[in-house]
Amino acid sequence: MRLPLTVVFASLIRLLGWGYIPIAVIAKLPFAMSVVAVMTAVSALRGSYSEAGITAALVGVGTAISGPLMGAAADRWGQRPVLLILGVANATALLGLAWALLNEATSPVILTMGLLIGLTAPQASSMVRSRWLLAIDAEMPATSRSRSTSAVLSYESMTDELMFVFGPVIVGVSAVAWGTVSPVVGASLLTAVGIIAFALHRSAEYAQGRTGKRAPTGRGASAAPVVDTSDTAAGSTVAATGSPTSAGGGNTSANGQAASANGQAASADGGGAPTSGTPAAATEPSAAQVETAPGPDPVAMLFRAAVLLPVGGMVCIGLFFGSTLTSLTAFMETLGNADATGILYGVMGVGSAICALSVVLLPEAFRLRARWLVFATLMFVGCLLYTQGETLTFFVVALLIMGAGVGPSLVTLFAIASEQSPAGRLTTVMAMMSTGVVVGQSASSALSGTLLDGAGLAVGLWGPAVSGALLVTLGVAYHWTVRPRPRPREEVVAA
Given pLDDT bands bounded at 50, 70 and 90, which one contains residue 132? Predict the structure, then answer.
């Protein structure tokens, strides 16, 4: 029976606790502020848009380099130690940039600090998602896992959208109120508080990596062989080995990890949280279990089309965000009202967030590969309307249509990535996805600015349409090249 959404969300909140929600939001906010804060502070204090743009681009480059590596480190050693190190390092790098700007340091110092900010960026967004998904796999009954995964990915995409919208707003307000360097200092303080709190939260027990003491599941456990080749919207499949795999990633074995007689069975309302309040997956495995536990899939599995195509889709989403914000700013300047750009951009962002959250209402028969094509096409149609905008009203309508497509596209891409993630590499894949947005946004911001300066507004407005067309093209490629049944992704324990 399909559980009501209220029951699903209540079960998820009980799983990790109410405190997880605000802590996760605070952990994700600093990076949403960082790029804009760096751009604002450097341009204001150095008087050079070129230096500001290069510094902000280096933040993106650093994130692109370190993101997947930090995800792999979390998969290997667990999220907690990785986050604690990165939280301190990133807060220090942000303060270092603030110090360099206030003391009129040389350009190489400024650029180096920008690169360090990117290299030490905590992958909060990807780790928040993977922690949810690992907890669902460990605690939720199989009948609730699919819908719970869809609800989590919809909610997280909504909060990501809101962070992208309100992060720059917070930067602007604080810069006006307390000076141009204050957003950088504020991002540093939020990083120190939010990331460390997130690292120390009890939910980190679900993400201990391959060195953690977790009972083996999936291929290492014995189960009756059942095959289900359906490509459901939540991405659930059962491999021939008998290990059920959810879209949220990870398998549960027949030993009753999701519903056992020791009090971890799902409650009548679908809660699925352990009664003791302690993560069931944190139990000590026996020596025999550890010996037979499967290792992670090879790194080469990360470079399959099934993984790289959704990562490419996230790059397209980043290209869309960057080109839209840049071209919208240019349009508002023609109206003499550039200060209102954030409000107009927020209209699209809020609409997109609402549509992202609404994805959980879609029927499972509306499969992921079909969703990619439908919502990417909707986004592309809105982008085409955007290119023809001449009045503010026309732009608002176009932005609403674009938002209605991009929000659900985000949810869909993360769902596909989670189901296609190789065994033992969930956080790595989530980090690759989040990094894709940053890379795309950084690249398009620079390219769109150059295009607008050289060819004018009419040409610059085509930037979002190009990103939309690329997203549709990748969706078609995924539809025809990736098999409907995803490769199982199990929890693994290092021998």
Answer: confident
Let me know: does 402 contact 464? Beta carbons within 8 Å.
Answer: yes
Q: Is 424 left (phi over 0), alpha (psi -120 to 50) or beta?
A: left
Backbone angles phi, psi at 263, to 5 degrees: 100, 5
CA distances, 127 to each of 5, 255, 287 (Å)? 24, 27, 29
State yes or no: pLDDT of 105 exceeds 70.
yes
What whole-number distance in Å separates Cα of residue 425 and Cα of residue 72?
7
Q: How far apart are CA 119 and CA 164, in angstroms?
A: 20
State which amino acid sits at residue 142.
A
The closest of 156, 461, 125, 164 to 321, measured between CA atoms, is: 164
pLDDT of 495 strictly over 50: no
Among 443, 383, 373, CA closest to 413: 373
Tokens of 458: 């009419």
Average pLDDT over residues 101-129: 91
Q: Is 272 left (phi over 0), alpha (psi -120 to 50) or beta?
A: left
pLDDT at 5: 62
Name every residue whose Cβ is closer than 8 Å to that of residue 201 and which is 6 or more positions away in sequence.
16, 19, 20, 23
Let me know the angle formed at the C-alpha of 145 by 143 and 148, rounded to the nearest 5 degrees. 120
Q: Report the alpha-carbon angle 88-83-14, nearest 5.
A: 130
* Tokens found for residue 439: 């890379």
Spell out the long-range contacts of 296-302 with Cβ–Cβ below 8 A and sequence spacing 24 or more. Answer: 296/75, 296/210, 296/422, 296/423, 296/424, 296/425, 296/492, 297/422, 297/423, 297/424, 297/425, 297/489, 298/422, 299/425, 301/422, 301/425, 301/487, 302/68, 302/422, 302/425, 302/428, 302/429, 302/432
Q: What SS3 class is residue 245? A: strand
Tokens of 187: 């991002």
Q: What are phi and psi of 138, to 5 degrees?
A: -80, -30
Residues in the chain: 495
pLDDT digits (tens, 9 = 90+) for 286-333: 444 444 445 667 778 888 889 999 999 999 998 998 888 888 888 887
Q: How many Cα atoms within 13 Å fall on the side-chain side of residue 331?
A: 26
Q: Is the pLDDT of residue 192 over 50?
A: yes
Measuring CA to CA, which residue among 64, 43, 183 is closest to residue 439? Answer: 64
Confidence (pTM): 0.69
